[in-house]
Amino acid sequence: AQSVAQPEDQVNVAEGNPLTVKCTYSVSGNPYLFWYVQYPNRGLQFLLKYITGDNLVKGSYGFEAEFNKSQTSFHLKKPSALVSDSALYFCAVRDKGNTGFQKLVFGTGTRLLVSP
Amino acid sequence: EAQVTQNPRYLITVTGKKLTVTCSQNMNHEYMSWYRQDPGLGLRQIYYSMNVEVTDKGDVPEGYKVSRKEKRNFPLILESPSPNQTSLYFCASSSYGGMAAGAKNIQYFGAGTRLSVL
Question: Which one of A110, A115, B78, B91 has the minimum C-beta count within 10 Å?
Fold first, then answer.
């Protein structure tokens, strides 16, 4: 089964500084990887995905993620953090469900706190 | 506006009292899914549906039922809730649930239902 791991429960960064939220994956075959963000009292929102092609994927709100096959990582990055980026971030990988259709397998989440 | 709507947003109930959490999407999506979110465990899939009258178990289906009689609706039913079902529940939908390389696989989530079972 496919899985992802988010090694940090929380990441603290000052506004204006670059941020990285880490994700590593374990898959058989080619990975389909996703990042979602959850703001307080809201559902998850899609940020970006990697399926194939360029290792640097650009997404919503200025976020990007770097796919690294040798390190089996898919870290989320942003060059300059905003206070409004404070949220819970989930890495996910597509997996095959019981009947052969897709499901998303989520990591445990990383809380990002951006201080003014 | 494209939406996945869950109701209620908050619910406190007692052990054994049947309840239903509704989910509706207006994007004509075939694929719908229910997840529960627990601290330290991330989101875990409960049930999913590929289309009307087609449903299957996810990773944690025990104690839950679902139905898909209409394309837009996918209610989650707890016949006899127990305290270990206290959690934050999310419904999601997407346009295609297949494993093909071109599948969009982007899921749209509702705002969540926070359930407490006493």
Answer: A115
Q: Is residue B34 a contact partner of residue B49, using CB atoms and an 8 Å limit? A: no
Put simply, the answer to whether A102 touches B57 (Cβ < 8 Å) is no
Q: Do B48 and A109 touch (CB under 8 A)?
A: no
Residue A92 CA, distance from chain mean position: 7
Closest residue, chain B, to A107 (C-alpha):
B42
A96 CB neighbours in chain B (<8 A) are 99
- List, as one string, the DSSP characters of chain B: ---EEEE-SEEEE-TT--EEEEEEESS--SEEEEEEEETTTEEEEEEEEEETTEEEE-S--TT-EE--SSTTB--EEESS--GGG-EEEEEEEES-----TT-----EE---EEEEE-
Distance set, CA A11 to CA A62, A68, A86, A87 (Å): 18, 21, 10, 10
Over the stretch B61-109, which tens digit does the pLDDT of each residue have? 999 999 999 999 999 999 999 999 999 999 999 887 555 555 566 889 9
